[in-house]
Write a structure and sequence with these properties.
89 residues; alpha+beta; two-stranded parallel ribbon; 2 helices
């Protein structure tokens, strides 16, 4: 890992090389007030079906052009096709 000064045109969100998102779902009706802001209480879920669905999409290239406004500029926004990693834990 290295640290260096960013170029003047660098954009923290749009110039990122990699992004990591983590979503926490709680299958109970209530969680600790310390966790409440970090997870979504969903109630019971079919975790087996969710894991199966995640496996079918894991490491698959997905086209995100539908979520773009206007014509995407790959040099600025990056490619609209992204490869995602999904897992149910």
């Amino acid at each position: 890992m290295a640290l260096e000064k960013a170029e003047p045109h660098f954009h923290a969100r749009l110039s990122a090389v990699r992004k990591h998102y983590s979503f926490r779902l709680a299958t109970v009706d209530a969680v600790s007030p310390f966790e409440a802001r970090y997870c979504w209480c969903t109630g019971p879920l079919d975790l087996e079906a969710m894991a199966e669905a995640a496996m079918s999409l894991d490491r698959k290239a997905l086209d995100y052009s539908t979520f773009s406004m206007g014509t995407p500029e790959p040099d600025y926004h990056g490619e609209v096709e992204k490869t995602v990693g999904l897992a149910v834990r």
